[in-house]
Amino acid sequence: MQPILRLQDVSKVYPNGTAAVQEANLEVGEGELISFVGPSGCGKSTIFRMAAGLSAPTAGKIEVLGTTPEEARRSNGISFVFQEATLMPWSSVRDNVALPLKLRQAPRKVQDEEAERALELVGLQDYAKALPRQLSGGMRMRVSIARALIANPRILLMDEPFGALDEITRQTLQEELLSIWRRNPGMTVLFVTHNAFEAVYLSNRILVMTPRPGRISREIAVDVPYPRGDRFRTGPEFGRFVGLVNESLKH
Amino acid sequence: MNPVFSNLLSRIGPPLIAFVLFVGAWQAVVAIAELPTYLLPKPSDIVAAAADNWTHLLGSVSTTLIETILGFLLSVIGGVLGAILLASSKIVERSIYPYAIVLQTIPIVAVAPIIVIWFGAGIRSIVTIAFLIGFCPMLSNTLIGLNSTDKNLNNLFTLYNATKWQTMWRLRIPAALPYIVGGLKISCSLCVIGAIVGEYVAGVGGGQGGLGYAITYAAMRIQTPYLFACGLMASILGIAFYQIVNGLSRKWLGSWHESEMRGDHD
């Protein structure tokens, strides 16, 4: 089966000479949930930006959905969730969520219906008319996720989306993400985090990256079936995986 | 006491008392020192001069008002459209923006006579001068706003294949609104000054002269109380303009931008 995302010897050196990524190789299959873990500045976000076609590699080749990242982007196959909620403060929650469809010039009725559906997925159907500033940090992030989902992406790139949230909100959103992912079997999720606990809980595979220039130094398969729940989070197996990730980060 | 009334009183009370004290002291000092009216008129002389020449004064205010509005509208339209044009291409911006800065640094009184030669004495020259003085802050503020869009939002628009026009209309212009409003606030006061300076240079030109013309005329005839009345009306005009723009700013930004949000937001 053809991989959804393939990186072949991908390197990225910025014009100021900073080597962000060095010879990264990776294959991602359809429906996976993969976490990238590594210290700050190890090139995780750079890989995401390149996969989304927002930045070009200086060496190597990236294939997304069997084509170039730019082409995949043009076919609306990719969605992105940033570390910040990145909402338009002047627009209502509904208009923020409907943005990808608005830019595709979908009929207003379709925009509204799909926004309603996406907001229901993240439990914010009652806040459609609110402005972003009227929401909490966790709710804003939910809006951001709803906006990414409305585009029906085949690849969802999440660049440390829960990093700025408190622990309780973070765990709630982790559950919501897993539930959404499991209801969309064709959707592949790539997730950046600093947090080993988060990576182990969410992913079926964890990629550990080295400090700059970032290389993928280790791959850890978390072969625990979903749904995982609190029993997994508090069990000995969870601790073993977290230990493995932490140990890999130290090396 | 009614809380609304008490709140209003506490807000306008102190400046009102300061004003009454200032005007009273002025009236008393000039009367006691017996200063000649042509040197420093009493506030009562200024009010009397304004009342005696009321129709003239009102005519001058309405002329300056029309010139200011026209100059202001032109500078807003020109400044915003010019900034959109410059912001849509880095090459265009690099080629043209330096000249816009040069335009900003030329003193308006130095170019005013040339404008009168080109457009003739009268409203066309005056509006052009008001436009020129209000245009630059509109252009540079809007341009800064259009170029300060959040990087991630920009990336998001690219990711969802937005056209250049969609990004401009749905993202860059709304995001630049606080800067545009800042430009409006500077430009509206400058346009009043521009119109009055224009009237100094370009005079009447057929119709009723504006406040600048009335000021020149009163100064030549040493009608100091009327001169004060004209100056006062010019500043009231400037304040009124500023307050209108302030109201627009609250309407456009009140719900989402820090600069205009009041009360218990997070």
TrEMBL record, chain A:
Residues 5-236 form the ABC transporter domain. Keywords: ATP-binding, Nucleotide-binding, Transport. GO terms for molecular function: ATP binding; ATP hydrolysis activity. The keyword Magnesium does not apply. CDD domains: ABC_NrtD_SsuB_transporters (cd03293). The keyword ATP-binding applies. InterPro entries: AAA+_ATPase, ABC_transporter-like_ATP-bd, ABC_transporter-like_CS, ABC_transporter_ATP-bind, P-loop_NTPase. It comes from the Bacteria. This is ABC transporter ATP-binding protein.
TrEMBL record, chain B:
The chain crosses the membrane at residues 12-33, 65-87, 99-120, 126-146, 176-197, 226-245. Pfam families: BPD_transp_1 (PF00528). CDD domains: TM_PBP2 (cd06261). GO terms for biological process: transmembrane transport. It comes from the Bacteria. Residues 61-245 form the ABC transmembrane type-1 domain. InterPro entries: MetI-like, MetI-like_sf. GO terms for cellular component: plasma membrane. SUPFAM superfamilies: MetI-like. Coiled coil: none annotated. Its main location: membrane. Belongs to the binding-protein-dependent transport system permease family. This is ABC transporter permease. It comes from Cohnella xylanilytica. The lineage of its organism: Bacteria, Bacillati, Bacillota, Bacilli, Bacillales.
